[in-house]
Amino acid sequence: GQFYSPQGIALDSASNVYVADHGHHRVQKFTAQGDFLLKWGSEGTDDGQFKGVFAVAVDGEGSVYVADNNYARIQKFTSQGEFLLKWGASGEGEGQFHIIRDIAVDGAGNVYVTDSHRIQVFDSNGRFLRKWGSYGNGDGQLIYPGRLAVDEEGNVYVTDGGNDRVQVFDPDGRFLR
Fold this sequence. Notes:
By secondary structure, this protein is mostly beta strands. Helix content is 0%, strand content 45%. It has strands spanning 6-11, 17-21, 26-30, 36-40, 53-58, 64-68, 73-77, 83-87, 100-105, 111-115, 118-122, 128-132, 145-150, 156-160, 165-169. The strands form four sheets. The protein has a four-stranded antiparallel beta sheet, with no helix packed on it. Strands 5-6-7-8 form a four-stranded antiparallel beta sheet, with no helix packed on it. The chain starts with 5 loop residues before the first strand and ends in an 8-residue tail after the last strand.
């Protein structure tokens, strides 16, 4: 129930709260009233371990996705913290990550990840689907994308920290505004 540099937060359909506890290399789960339920994770490279937990998201099925920035990977868990799978590696290729800042899940279970100067999209099993974005200040270009959110229509909202703006894309990555 205590934190050291909490970074990300997500809610499930029962309004339970999941917190990415960056400094403790773990995820903590609470009721909507703030009562501690459970925690999982520790520092390390094994399944269920982290270094730099930066973001957390929950899908409609209750699966929990955790962005482990320092190890350039996404890990998927049950709502009880049981490890299911992981994907990613350090790099610039498809399915590789350089700087993960946030993670979000749409209504279809697709997982969106802000990474360096792009957005990458995966299915719920970690299969790469698509990416968009490049370095710059034009429409659809990003400099240090940070947080993201997906609305009911699947539109993706991204904070573009290096350009001091928010950009909106359709589910396929086409710039809207």
